[in-house]
């Protein structure tokens, strides 16, 4: 191949990468900038807060355009509304304060050239003092010990199938089937094992909400760990993609509400004990080093990471991003609750019933967080509309085990590369000796 051909290939490759970068970093040309007057977005209860609001287009501040704002408790109706014409391009509004720990939201809307734009920011008031609204059932430990014993009594009967097309020079990748919950009922996942002979730490990666195929956890596998990425719905992980989408919109739609009126049959009972079954499998592998076992996940997976660590002392380290299922009864006490928002105003007609509230106490992440013994790294943002920080702080604050918290203030229900880098580095230090 001559130099001219090589130059042409490199040019085309550069154009492809640049085009991809542009497509994956699209954002609105007009942006509402809402800046709290505290750099850390955090205030003491009783302390007055304010926001400075600007509308930016092409890095230039716009003037003489309409702005509407709403301020109130997170996820609840606003208690302050107003407007401005942004005559000078910048507008400062007093947000007031909170007498008890929690979060306030400032939501803004504007219209530029016939297009409507919106943005919001949450600020915290003594979030480290937030206490959960849910309570611990007297028989909580007994209930879950019995559930774990029932799981242990069912033969695992693992079926492990090599996936040659997914293997790399350093890692073998397998599809795994584990019997669980009852005879003939299964859990599925994707297993990665380093090819180099030896004994390795093991990591369980638990999934976010939804019904989808779980990819292999290669990032940690390439650092020298056994990894198992599981699904939670008893569906093989090698089926056509459209099947998962059809199930998500069909029989598994709103699965987080299934059997909420029964603590013995609620959907997540099978899920939580399935995570323990996954640990059983990892610990049975001859390549496992017998000591260093971790669990990691985000959203629903963040919840499952904390639940698994709370149920099983074999876990030696966990990472949880914006955990769901935290303090779900918050809405019944005049503040935000965690995903799946089962007691939010729009769902109260269906779920605000004594038996469903009682069931939630056995599955709320807060009550598992009380029993976590392993060191953990936790991370979320203040602007998460799915797993509100009011709920995640309520769980984090009851943890007595060693813990670290990475707050990326302006993130929503997503995370930055810095959050992944920091937590992965910490995770590896905990597990790779």
Automatic annotation (TrEMBL):
The active site is at 299 (nucleophile), 384 (charge relay system), 413 (charge relay system). Keywords: Signal. The keyword Membrane does not apply. The keyword Signal applies. InterPro entries: AB_hydrolase_fold (IPR029058), AXE1_dom (IPR008391), CE7 (IPR039069). Residues 1-23 form the signal peptide. Coiled coil: none annotated. GO terms for biological process: polysaccharide metabolic process. Gene3D superfamilies: alpha/beta hydrolase. GO terms for molecular function: carboxylic ester hydrolase activity. Residues 130-416 form the Acetyl xylan esterase domain. This is Acetyl xylan esterase domain-containing protein. It comes from Bacteroides nordii CL02T12C05.
């Amino acid at each position: 191949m001559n130099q001219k051909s090589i130059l042409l290939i490199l040019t085309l490759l550069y154009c492809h990468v640049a085009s991809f970068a542009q497509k994956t970093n699209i954002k609105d040309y007009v942006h509402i900038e809402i800046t709290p007057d505290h750099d850390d977005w955090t205030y003491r209860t009783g302390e007055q807060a304010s926001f400075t609001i600007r509308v930016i287009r092409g890095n230039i501040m716009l003037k003489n355009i309409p702005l509407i704002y709403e301020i109130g408790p997170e996820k609840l109706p606003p208690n302050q509304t107003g407007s401005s014409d942004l005559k000078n391009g910048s507008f400062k509004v007093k947000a007031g304060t909170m007498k008890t720990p929690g979060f306030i939201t400032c939501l803004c809307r504007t219209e530029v050239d016939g297009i409507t734009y919106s943005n919001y920011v949450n600020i915290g008031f003594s979030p480290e003092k937030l206490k959960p609204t849910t309570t611990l059932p007297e028989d909580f430990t007994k209930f879950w010990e019995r559930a774990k014993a029932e799981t242990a009594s069912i033969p695992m009967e693992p079926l492990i199938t090599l996936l040659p097309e997914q293997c790399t020079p350093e890692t073998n990748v397998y599809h795994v089937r584990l019997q669980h919950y009852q005879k003939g009922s299964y859990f599925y996942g994707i297993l990665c094992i380093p090819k180099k002979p030896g004994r390795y730490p093991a990591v369980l990666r638990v999934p976010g909400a939804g019904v989808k195929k779980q990819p292999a956890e290669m990032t940690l596998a390439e650092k020298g760990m056994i990894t198992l990425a599981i699904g939670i719905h008893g569906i093989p992980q090698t089926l056509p993609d459209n099947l998962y989408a059809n199930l998500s919109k069909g029989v598994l739609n709103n699965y987080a509400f299934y059997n909420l009126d029964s603590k013995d049959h609620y959907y997540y009972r099978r899920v939580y004990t399935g995570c323990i079954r996954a640990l059983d499998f990892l610990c049975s592998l001859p390549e496992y080093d017998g000591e260093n076992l971790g669990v990691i996940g985000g959203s629903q997976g963040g919840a499952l990471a904390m639940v698994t660590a709370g149920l099983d002392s074999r876990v030696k380290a966990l990472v949880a991003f914006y955990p769901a299922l935290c303090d779900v009864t918050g809405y019944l006490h005049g503040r935000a609750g965690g995903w799946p928002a089962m007691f939010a105003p729009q769902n109260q007609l269906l779920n605000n019933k004594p038996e469903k509230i009682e069931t939630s106490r056995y599955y709320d992440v807060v009550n598992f967080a009380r029993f976590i013994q392993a060191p953990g790294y936790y991370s979320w943002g203040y602007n998460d509309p799915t797993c509100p920080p009011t709920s995640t702080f309520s769980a984090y604050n009851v943890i007595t085990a060693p813990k670290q918290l990475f707050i990326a203030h302006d993130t929503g229900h997503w995370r930055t590369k810095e959050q992944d880098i920091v937590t992965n580095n910490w995770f590896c230090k905990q597990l790779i000796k």
